[in-house]
Amino acid sequence: MTVAWFSIEDLGTLVRRHRADDSVAKAISRIMRADLVTVDDIGLLPISPDAAEGFYRLVDAAYERRALAISSNLHPSGLDELMPKTLATATVDRLLHHAHIVVTQGDSFRLTEAATRPSQSSSRSLHTSGPCRSGCSRAEQAAVSVSSHTTSPSSPHTPVPTLQGRPS
Predict the structure, then answer these.
(1) Against a cut of 0.90, is the pTM above it?
(2) DSSP single-letter state for residue 39
(3) Rounded to whole angstroms, how far apart are CA atoms 85 and 120?
(4) Measured between alpha carbons, how far is 150 from 162 in angstroms, rounded to an integer?
(5) Residue 96 backbone class (left: φ over 0; alpha: ψ -120 to 50; beta: rest)
(6) DSSP letter at 23?
(7) Chunked in runs of 10, what are the mean pLDDT values of the chain (168 residues)?
């Protein structure tokens, strides 16, 4: 299984880079070769018009063809706070048709873990946590990112879908 992982601003960068030679559609098509496409942390920061366009283009290309996993602090109805209403409506329409929405509530897993972790001496060096400490490819980092963002609060090893469509 191949996974492609993006932040919403990565999609904006992709649109800006490929707009010059009119190859945005081709770039989105290459992304659609992955079995699962993940867009992470939508709604944390304001997004650029290019990011909104890239997100819409990705959702449109994946609609009924590819699985999408979306993580967001916003309910899908709040996307019109991030992008023009017409674009948000079209994006949400495609996202929610065939979607499984999982709403999570409660304290941050990271903050809870940090609060329960024993304090570390300031003489220790800071290191990367998780299974991908060093030498991972971007695809491996994406797989780690997907699994770390889709675990159940009751069991850290139980996958939970975020907002995802089913491939046709």
Answers:
(1) no
(2) E
(3) 48
(4) 7
(5) alpha
(6) -
(7) 94 94 94 95 91 96 94 89 94 93 83 80 40 41 38 38 39
Q: Determine the length of the chain.
A: 168
Q: Which amino acid is at 75?
A: H
User: Is the CB of residue 50 less than 8 Å from the CB of residue 17?
Assistant: no
106-125 pLDDT, tens digit per residue, is 888 888 888 888 765 444 43
**26 token code pair:** 């081709």
What single letter denotes the amino acid at residue 139? A
CB atoms under 10 Å from CB of 59, counted, come to 21
Residue labelled with tokens 């997907």: 146
Helix or strand (DSSP H, E) at 26: helix 24-31
